[in-house]
Amino acid sequence: MENVLKVQSVNDYAEFVGAPVLHPLVSVVHYDELEQCRHCLCEYGVYGLFLMEESPYTIQYGQGAHKVQSGSLMCVAPGQKGGITDNGEIIHIKGWVLLFHPDLLPGTILERIIKDYHFFSYYSNEALLPTREEWLRLERCIAAIRKELIDYPQDPHLRRIVLSYISLLLEFASRFYERQFSVQEKDGFGRKIKAVLDRYYVEGRQTCDGVPGVRYCAGELCLSPNYFGDLVRARTGGSATQYIRRYLMEKARGMLLEGQAVSAVSDALGFGYPQHFTRMFKKEFGMAPSKIQDT
Predict the structure, then answer these.
(1) Distance, CA of 255 to CA of 87 (rounded, Å)
(2) In 195-216, which positions are buried (b, 16+ CB within 10 angstroms) versus exposed (e)?
(3) Using one digit for the tens of pLDDT, what is the confidence trace for 81-125?
(4) Does domain 189-294 have CATH number 1.10.10.60?
(5) Which of 55, 204, 212, 268 has a CA-to-CA distance to 6 between 20 and 30 Å?
């Protein structure tokens, strides 16, 4: 069986790696200061930001194994699992970890908006990539949180101050997140999606699996569904579901113009019911598919 550390408290991880316990709801770990750090496969019940300066390891995250890039920021949320199973090896990495418990958030603005930070659902190969200057800015924020926890443990203002720093960190992360959309665009993201969808039909997957969905396309591009959806929205202004529907309906229109019957086109595209295909076609083009050949 896998040896999994259940990080239900922020200090479950701190105690495992031998870092100081600073607060019941917030933990800051500075890897550089640890003497006996070991690998750890974690199941998280808390939020976490891993600011990796040096990490020459491949970790398990999402549905695969991924190389953690040095100089990157990786974010995790409750319900996620990642890391490397402890094999007793003493490891040497540099960087910081900030963990905070959901119980820190009730009644705050951050509680209402944290679901909008989609980078928490990333796979590690979608880690955020700040510049060196930006990385140092993040490091200063996390170091400032640790100093507050050490110097003012009983201060009644501590929670608000720490939450302000966390909110600032997440806004910095949003900047990197949005910037990476433009990089994907330069890499021909639209062409990659079309290639995935074209291959789906060339391989005949629709005969068993029906029409392709968001999760399939995201998986083929090694992206999480949320990240894939946000990339599509940034490129087109519409949802990933709408993007795939438009591809299907353009493909259907071409087949209908070639003279194929509506039922044959519906079956060929993987629709379980011709009525479903007809409704989608009318929504896209404002006319029934049977009318397309008359135009």
Answers:
(1) 56
(2) ebbeebbeeeebeeeebbebeb
(3) 877 777 777 777 889 999 999 999 999 999 999 988 878 875 544
(4) yes
(5) 55
- In this prediction the pTM is 0.67
CB 287 within 8 A of CB 280: no
Count other C-beta atoms under 10 Å from residue 77's C-beta. 18
Distance CA 138, CA 18 (A): 23
CATH code that applies to domain 4-186 = 2.60.120.280
Spans of all domains in the chain: 4-186, 189-294
- Counting beta carbons within 10 angstroms of the beta carbon of residue 3, is it exposed (0 to 12), middle (13 to 18) or buried (19 or more)? exposed
Give CA angle at 72 (151, 36), nearest 5°.
60
Helices (H), the chain: 10-17, 109-113, 132-151, 158-186, 189-202, 206-209, 214-220, 225-236, 240-257, 262-269, 274-285
